[in-house]
Queue: 2 jobs
Job 1
Amino acid sequence: MSKAKASQTNGGVALGRYIVADPAVCHGKPTFKGTRVFVADVLADVERGLSWDFIVRRWGGGKISKGAITEAVRLARNALLDDQGRLTSVPAAA
């Protein structure tokens, strides 16, 4: 799995197909495109073990898709692991 590169958009950075970081939206924190739903909040729901169907309904009844959740998890994984599954850096203690 190769690392995706972010691309510039009008006023922000597209981190993938569904995720953007735009200084004009939510202070530049990563959100799902066209929403003010924070990627961090959805990842917290995944961490808590909520079903993806529930997460989709919870955040605006379909404003985000399972594909968008998948992308968020993939980006989080890529931030932690390299292509061979090794740590890219040591995470801060929780």
Job 2
Amino acid sequence: MRLVFASPRLSFSLVAHKFFTLADANRTLPLVKRVVQDIMTVYPQWKDLVDRYGLVASQARYGLVASQARPEWGESQEQLSLKTEVDTVAAKINGYLGELEQIGCEFKGFDEGLVDFHGRLDEREILWCWKFSEDRITHWHELEAGFAGRQPLPEVMSRT
């Protein structure tokens, strides 16, 4: 049996993207940074709860805790309680992700706080790439390149 938790979602919608100039994307950063800080504060809690649930479930399944070794009875009270906590924290994270969606940017990474903004560079669609530790946007990448394809902004743009 596979367990499915409500988990934080990284959504990729098929609707038209909002396009940002570099200056516009940088102007959103104070708000984006606050939302990403909230995500990065809560996400480790979600991971910890999921790990704790997995441990409790394993112990119950394999009879490591005699009082919980009743797989035919379903989940223990502790498992149900942890599952509720996991879902609550996931809902909070999903709310934060929705805030970023409303701004028009895309959250791409829980560990480093990665955010992409659709933009244009030399007449082609690109992504302005920002991570939580940066004061402003200093990199970009091609649509399919991802974080590994990050490139510094052209010198003329990095002064803006």
